[in-house]
Known about the structure:
The protein is about 20% helix and about 20% strand. The protein is α+β, with helices and mostly antiparallel strands.
Amino acid sequence: MTLFEKVVAREIPAKIVFEDDEILAFHDINPQAPVHVLVVPKRVIPRIAEAQPSDGALLGRLLLTGKQIAADLGLSETGFRLVINSGRNGGETVPHLHLHVLGGRPMNWPPG
């Protein structure tokens, strides 16, 4: 069971900002920006590199949920970043697809 599955199952506490039948979003415990929320599908897809065409609707919901969370947290006007890491070199640390919503400070480019 992944760390995020344990959060979804409420085995690990989290500061939740959004939940519906398919998605859970919560503040990262190791934030990389003043606002750092993780948007996690409840159904496990290990990483974006393993997503299938049948996952398209859920992937779209992840992005739209990230956009709405950014708006709800006051980031829309100044800007924010949505990030999906995939694989070791992509910075993935939990093998459960998730979207990072980052904001509250200027983001550098290129990242990492």
